[in-house]
Amino acid sequence: MIKLKQLIKEETIHSCECGGDCCSLNESTDINLPKGMELGKVFTGHGFAFKKEELEEKVNKSDLKYQLDMSLDNLGIGTKALIAMKPKGRDYFLKMKSYMYKDSMEKVLKDANKVLKSKLKVKKFKKTSFGTEFIIGESIKENLIYVDKDMKDGKFDPKNPQVHIQGHGVVNLKTLQDSLSRKFTELAKRAKKGDVENIEYILKKNGVLMGFVEALVNANKELSSSTMKRKITMYKRKR
Predict the structure, then answer these.
(1) Burial class of residue 174 in the structure, from the number of CB atoms within 10 Å of its CB (0-12 exposed, 13-18 middle, 19+ buried)
(2) From its phi and psi, is residue 210 left (phi > 0), alpha (psi between -120 and 50) or beta?
(3) Do 133 and 126 form a contact (C-beta atoms < 8 A)?
């Protein structure tokens, strides 16, 4: 993961309009969006972007089964309520007794989450003639975007993937890093001048800067996840 202190470095502020990488993110000092990016629109400069995606590995099956049994007992429902459980992608499919409803399952997951330090929730719920079926899993923020499409087209760059900044648009990883580097360099200059109020507004109230930081942090977490590493390995082998 790239640390913020690595981004706070001396940079030359480009003022040319050559159309190259040097001016693809010509920014003003009030921490505006990169040039060409508007709220709710996709930035189509020299790269693409991050999109939010779940980053953590899912809860271990045996740990989850054990804790679900414990939570069912803790709530006075009983372990017999859980008939079967099996993995379904990043989620889990649960077959429960017919007396289990969404609200009761949510209470079970709330109890289990406290122990597992997880964020499991009910994603799908269906009553059948044989009982109740649930799909449960963790909500995951996805920042890398167009990964499968770019891999299929042979355009995916593991070192500079497309990144979606939620609510702002799409840029590539290096563009986002350069943008943050310039933003923090500007903040350092303001700090030297004692412009504390402006800095506080930018960091706490504006929201744009922290949105960029969150996108960068999440994207690097995702790139280092075992799921993405396997995807990248398979992609390289096919090329």
Answers:
(1) middle
(2) alpha
(3) yes
Nearest to 23 by CA among 11, 33, 13: 13
Whether pLDDT at 234 is above 80: yes
Q: Which of 109, 138, 167 is the last residue of a domain?
A: 138
Cβ-Cβ contacts under 8 Å for 183 (sequence gap 6 or more): 27, 31, 209, 212
User: Where in the sequence is the domain holding 221, given as residue range(s)?
Assistant: 7-54+142-238
pTM, two decimal places: 0.46
pLDDT digits (tens, 9 = 90+) for 89-114: 778 999 999 999 999 999 999 999 99
Q: Are 154 and 121 in the same domain?
A: no
- CB environment 81-112: b (16+ within 10 A), e (fewer): bbeebeeeeebbbbbbeeebeeebbbebbebb
| In-domain check, residue 168 | yes
Bridge pairing between strands 169-172 and 162-165: antiparallel
Q: Identify any residues that bridge with 85 across adjacent strands, giving them in sequence order.
A: 94
Give a yes or no: residue 2 inside a domain. Answer: no
Is residue 45 predicted with pLDDT exceeding 70? no
Neighbour count for residue 160 (Cβ, 10 Å): 16
